[in-house]
Amino acid sequence: MAQIIDGKQIAADLVAEVANGAQAIFSEYGIRPGLAVVLVGDDPASQVYVRNKVARATEAGLNSIEHRLPADTDQVTLNALVDELNNDPAVHGILVQLPLPEQLNEEEIISRINPRKDVDGFHPINVGELAIGNATLVPCTPQGCLLMLEKTLGDLSGKHAVVIGRSNIVGKPMALLLLHANCTVSIVHSRTRNPQELCKQADIVVAAVGRTEMVDASWVKEGATVIDVGINVTERDGKRKLLGDVNFADVEPVANAITPVPGGVGPMTIACLMNNTLIAARNQLS
Ligand code: GUN
Question: pTM higher than 0.85 for the full model?
Answer without folding.
Answer: yes
